[in-house]
Amino acid sequence: MFKLDGKIALVTGGSRGIGRSICEALAEQGATVVVNYVKGEAQAREVADGIIARGGKAEIMGFDVADMKAAETAVEEVVKKHGKLDILVANAGISIDGLLLRLKEEDIDRLVQVNLKGSLACARAATKAMMRAKTGRVIFLSSVVGEMGNVGQTAYSATKAALLGAAKSIAREFASRNITVNAVAPGFIDTDMTSTMTDQMKDFIVKSVPLARTGTSREVAAACAFLASDEAAYVTGQVIRVNGGMYV
Ligand code: NAP
């Protein structure tokens, strides 16, 4: 089950953390994976080389998802090279935390540009290609805080909540073309993004998780692999929460 042989996948922000695990999981299932990065070329190369060393297929592609033209061109290049794009995982994201009263305008702008506009830019370019093929999978990386909110994450959580609305709307727009669009909403996952938190902050969060631990990138990637598969053909406009019960 969940085999992806012959599928072409683009994973934005595949160089580190959750994106890296998604690249590895999709490749393990047989997909050819395009590993996107913005700054971490060496890390993206390492992800692709690791996949290839294990017998999988991967390549790297650097572009800033917040640059709509660059995202469009990147998707066009993937389609030109491989003849199609079956799976887009819009995973690239940043977090800039701060209480609303302390957030700077440029922080709010950057969060919206990368997390929201970047995901929409990639989805727009990808669905254009998928529409012609009359099949496709789009997966957005939202967050538990997009549904439950969090002190100090007003702007970040707003972008993640917006992705849920976007996934549901795009799912409706493209259902007749056999393209499914879903979101995965992780809870507290150990990655670079959460590494700046103090042990005290981590302990506090873990206390609010019924499964009493942080999640792993692989656990998030498994949900993406399912949504990308043929077996998930009847799942669209949905949110899969990988959060240890933190929000139910
Ligand atoms: P991470 O470790 O900080 O990695 C972020 C990835 O996004 C990197 O590969 C980075 O590429 C890429 N990226 C950042 N800005 C980009 C841009 N403008 N264009 C292209 N790529 C860009 O983050 P993570 O924890 O794995 O999070 C992945 C996703 O899951 C994010 O959308 C995040 O909001 C979401 N999420 C994470 C958690 C968590 O607890 N970690 C919880 C809920 C949701 P470079 O290496 O090139 O910088």
What is the strand and helix layout of this fold?
Layout: E1 8-11, H1 17-28, E2 32-37, H2 41-53, E3 57-62, H3 68-82, E4 87-90, H4 105-133, E5 136-141, H5 144-148, H6 154-174, E6 179-186, H7 192-195, H8 199-206, H9 217-228, E7 239-242
Parallel strand pairs: 1-2, 1-4, 2-3, 4-5, 5-6, 6-7
Helix pairs in contact: 1-2, 1-9, 3-4, 4-6
The protein binds NADP nicotinamide-adenine-dinucleotide phosphate.
NADP nicotinamide-adenine-dinucleotide phosphate binds near residues 12, 93, 114 and 141.
Q: Under CATH, the topology is which?
A: Rossmann fold
What series of H and E elements makes up the topology? Answer: EHEHEHEHEHHEHHHE
Instruction: Give a quick account of the main beta sheet: strands, pairing sense, barrel closure.
Output: 7 strands, parallel
Strand neighbour order, sheet with most strands: 3-2-1-4-5-6-7
CATH class term:
Alpha Beta
What count of structural domains? 1
Q: Which geometry do the CA atoms define?
A: globular
> What is the tally of beta strands?
7
CATH superfamily: NAD(P)-binding Rossmann-like Domain
Please outline what is shown here.
Helix content is about 50%, strand content about 15%.
Describe this structure in words.
By secondary structure, the chain is of the alpha/beta class. The protein has one domain: NAD(P)-binding Rossmann-like Domain (Rossmann fold), CATH 3.40.50.720. Helices cover 48% and strands 15% of the residues. The protein has helices at residues 17-28, 41-53, 68-82, 105-133, 144-148, 154-174, 192-195, 199-206, 217-228; strands spanning 8-11, 32-37, 57-62, 87-90, 136-141, 179-186, 239-242. Strands 3-2-1-4-5-6-7 form a 7-stranded parallel beta sheet, sandwiched between helices. Helix 2 (41-53) links the parallel strand 2 and strand 3 (57-62). The two termini are 27 Å apart. The chain binds NADP nicotinamide-adenine-dinucleotide phosphate. Residues 12-13, 15-19, 36-40, 43, 64-66, 91-94, 114, 118, 141, 143, 186, 188-189, 191-194 line the site of NADP nicotinamide-adenine-dinucleotide phosphate (NAP).
